[in-house]
Every structure is written in structure tokens, then in C-alpha cells.
Design goal:
single chain, alpha/beta, globular, eight-stranded parallel β-sheet
């Protein structure tokens, strides 16, 4: 078997646009002790190490050619090039101190799932370097997009009260976004536009980012919902949310999407005047989409408020299996009928394993919506999420993590592999070792508390990182 040997001093030729140091940081993390001479002279999305021999990409996302003399990688664009680089780094293994080998051969790949999304929540308990590791891990596992949802953890000029005093600055997050984009990710900004308006885990903590600091702003929230739902009927609220959207878009850079949330405002869909509320809600959400469309973006919203559980019976219901659907039949149908079709529906169904094709996703597709199928932490559910993508033409797959990010790194890696290959590459249990290796190299840390994805291993508080 032939190998390309990486040791001593190596020359790497990069595109002229590859100026962000994080790319070489990752290469260095996979080849400690090697001295890299960097030449940025490529006009196209090509990377060459040593005497890399060009090969045709033949329409694939990237092409990788490893010979005994060098490495050649070409991508459809710069993001695809980074995915080819990750495929090379995965081949690289430590043979001796400061000596690394990569098996020779040709690899051409394209993703099985077009839009591959990681949804990462940023809580007060989320350290910035830990978030950085997670973003880099998502890039390395070939996700195409990352949603950043700040739970009171970004200080914005448009609404300072929506952040705790110790929240991250825009400069800190802007630097993270810049590195993420250079690693091949599009960062999707997120702002809750309906429920979850407390920007805190209200049921778990009893906190409210805005009202605990500025109780005089209670008028911004819908009466009777105790600060849980924005009062979207008020022009002042709509203008405020529009300003926040603009600021987040500027922070996250160019992109095609904006996540507007809108889940779990349950009571809105159950009252006697639900149809009137549905009409007003459609007008509100359609206005948001019109604003985003004018800026080249599409809204993504959670789908549970557009569903009624009674409309989706499970023929072979397993224990604990149910459709996440939080509206009455009439309210859900009115929303589906009244919303613009350029709004993307994020269909989160975390327990469905017995339906070969999710009824919810099929319902949305038949209504004319583009759909992203969203899973959380159930291995069998990950597998079934692929079915509506194939059978109903859904546009993508989203891996959510919520408040459990510190316990979800192996899941993040597993789901990324599943989206890319369209099948299980290794079992979830075996993925933990691969995840540990990837996570360690994304942002090397040499102290106990900062290493890995938990600050401690046993005892109360283990895996407490959000």
C-alpha cells in the first residue's frame, strides 16, 4: 500500500482568498511538529501539497487525489474545497513522532443531503471556546450551515436589554463567524419572533432576560402570556424585531436564511377566536418574510404551530412516540393556508421511528412548503429523518442540541456523517471515539477543565456545559 508522507518541512499552496489562519490551525492540529510553508497563489478553489497531481472533479462537490508525491484537492467552491481538506485530514495518521501518513488514492464525493444544519444554542453557561469547538466540529463533519441562537448572550445595539451584562460582544462573535465562514459554513442568524420571548429556559430557570432587568418593558409582550410571547400586534414590537434582525444579519454576514423560531406558543392555537388570531399571525409572518426576501433571505420557522396531532395518527405507535404538534386542526390548517410558500418549515419530530415517512413533512410538502427535517438525540429518529428527504423531496436535515450541547458532541458528529453519506458510517456508540479525536483537534487545549466536552468526568454537575 502506498502512502504520502507528511514530515519535516512541507509546502502547501492555497487559494489567494484563504487568508484566515484557522485553516492552517486545523492542518497543524492534525500534523504537530510539521513545518508548513504557505503559498497563496491559486486563483481557483484548489489546494496542493508537495507535487500534487490534478484530477478532474467530474461534477462532484470535491475531488481528492493522494499520491506518493503529493496531495491535490479541488472543490466546486471554497467551501467545498475545505470539505475535501477535511477528507484528507481524516486519512492522515501519526506514524512516528512528527511523521504522518495518508493512504494514496482518489476520492470524489458529494453530499447525500443538500442542506445540513447544526442548531447551536448559546447560554450563559456556554464558554466561548467551547462554542468555537462546536462550530469547528460542525464544519469538519461537513455541515453546510450553523444556526446560532443566543439566549441572552449577545450584546446588541438595537436592544441592549435582551442580553445579560456578561454576554458576548459583537466583536467576539464576529470573529467566531469569520472563522466559521472560512471553514465552509454559512451562519444563519436566529431570533425568536413569537414564543420563547424570555430568551431563557423559563420553565427550568424562571429567568427572563428582558423583564428581570427592565420590568418597564412588559408592554412588549402579549398580555396573558407572562412574557413568553412577543406582542406581535404592536408596531413598536415589529420595528424592534426588524432592527434586531438587521443587526444579526450584519453580524453573521451574507446568507440566504434567517431562523425566526415561532415554536411552542401553544395557547394561541387553541382559543375560540383562533381563526382570527391565525389570520393576524399569517399577516405578521408574511411581512417578516417580505422584509427578508427584499434582502435576499428566506425565513425558517419551526413547524409545530402548523400541525394538529389528531391529524397524524400513528398506526404502529411505539412507547413515547408522538408527533410534535401544538395547534388545533382549524388553527393549523389556517396557518398552512395563509403563509407565504417561500417560508421554510423546520419540522422538528424527535420521537418518530415507526413511520417510514414523517406524516408531518409530507403534509408540509403537499401544502407547497420547503421543509427541513429536524432531529434531536434519538439514533433511530435520525435514520427516519432521511426518509422524507428522499421520498418527499425535503430540502435538508437539522441536528438540534438545545440545552444539552455538552452531551451531544458524539451525536453532532454522527448526524453530520449521516447527512453527508446518507447512511450510517459507524454506530453512534463507536462515534464517541471519533468525536473525541475530532473535538480535541478543533481547538487544542492542554488543561483538564478545558479539555474534552465536559469540565469534569464524574459526580454532580458532570456534563453541565450547555
Amino acid at each position: 500500500m502506498d502512502y504520502y508522507v507528511v514530515n519535516g518541512s512541507q509546502t502547501i499552496r492555497l487559494p489567494r482568498t484563504a487568508t484566515e489562519p484557522v485553516v492552517m490551525e486545523l492542518i497543524g492540529a492534525y500534523s504537530p511538529g510539521v513545518q508548513w510553508e504557505i503559498v497563496r497563489d491559486r486563483a481557483e478553489s484548489v489546494l496542493i501539497i508537495g507535487e500534487g497531481a490534478p484530477i478532474g472533479r467530474e461534477g462532484y462537490d470535491f475531488a481528492l487525489n493522494v499520491t506518493p508525491k503529493g496531495v491535490f484537492i479541488e472543490g466546486a467552491d471554497d467551501a467545498a474545497l475545505t470539505r475535501g481538506l477535511y477528507a484528507f485530514l481524516e486519512r492522515l495518521f501519526c506514524y512516528d513522532r512528527g511523521v504522518y501518513r495518508a493512504e494514496c488514492g482518489v476520492l470524489r464525493q458529494s453530499p447525500e443531503v443538500g442542506m445540513r444544519v447544526a442548531h447551536l444554542c448559546v447560554f450563559p453557561e456556554t464558554p466561548l471556546d467551547f462554542l468555537e469547538k462546536c462550530v469547528r466540529t460542525a464544519a469538519f463533519c461537513r455541515y453546510s450551515h450553523v444556526i446560532l441562537e443566543f439566549w441572552g448572550m449577545i450584546r446588541l445595539d438595537s436592544f441592549p436589554q435582551m442580553a445579560w451584562p456578561f454576554a458576548f460582544s459583537k466583536a467576539e462573535i464576529s470573529a467566531l463567524v469569520r472563522r466559521a465562514r472560512s471553514l465552509g459554513l454559512e451562519i444563519i442568524p436566529m431570533l425568536q419572533h413569537l414564543g420563547h420571548a424570555s430568551m431563557s429556559r423559563q420553565g427550568a430557570s424562571g429567568k427572563h432576560v428582558v423583564l428581570d432587568q427592565a420590568p418597564e418593558l412588559e408592554y412588549l409582550y402579549l398580555p396573558g402570556f407572562y412574557g413568553w410571547v412577543w406582542d406581535y400586534t404592536k408596531p413598536a414590537v415589529r420595528h424592534l424585531l426588524a432592527d434586531i434582525r438587521d443587526e444579526l444579519c450584519a453580524l453573521c454576514g451574507e446568507g440566504r436564511y434567517f431562523m425566526i423560531g415561532c415554536d411552542e406558543a401553544d395557547d394561541l392555537g387553541q382559543g375560540e377566536n383562533s381563526l382570527e388570531i391565525a389570520r393576524g399571525l399569517c399577516e405578521y409572518l408574511n411581512d417578516i418574510q417580505a422584509d427578508l426576501a427584499a434582502k435576499g433571505r428566506r425565513a425558517i420557522m419551526w413547524g409545530d404551530m402548523l400541525l394538529c396531532a389528531a391529524d397524524m395518527p400513528l398506526a404502529r405507535r411505539a412507547d413515547g412516540e408522538y408527533y410534535d404538534a401544538n395547534s388545533s386542526h382549524e388553527f393549523a390548517a389556517a396557518l398552512r393556508a395563509g403563509l407565504r410558500r417561500d417560508i421554510v418549515i423546520a419540522d422538528w419530530q424527535y420521537t418518530i421511528v415507526s413511520d417510514s415517512v414523517w406524516q408531518s413533512a409530507r403534509l408540509f410538502r403537499e401544502a407547497g412548503f420547503d421543509v427541513i427535517c429536524c432531529s434531536f438525540s434519538n439514533q433511530a429518529n435520525y435514520q427516519t429523518a432521511l426518509n422524507p428527504i428522499r421520498a418527499a423531496g425535503c430540502m435538508g436535515f437539522m441536528k438540534t442540541t438545545w440545552h444539552t450541547l455538552g452531551r451531544q458532541i458524539a451525536h453532532l458528529v454522527y448526524a453530520g456523517d449521516l447527512m453527508w453519506h446518507g447512511r450510517e458510517v459507524m454506530s453512534l456508540s463507536k462515534t464517541s471515539s471519533r468525536a473525541m479525536d475530532v473535538f480535541r483537534k478543533m481547538l487544542p487545549c492542554h488543561d483538564y477543565a478545558g479539555a474534552g466536552w465536559s469540565s469534569i468526568q464524574i459526580g454532580p454537575g458532570a456534563n453541565i456545559l450547555s
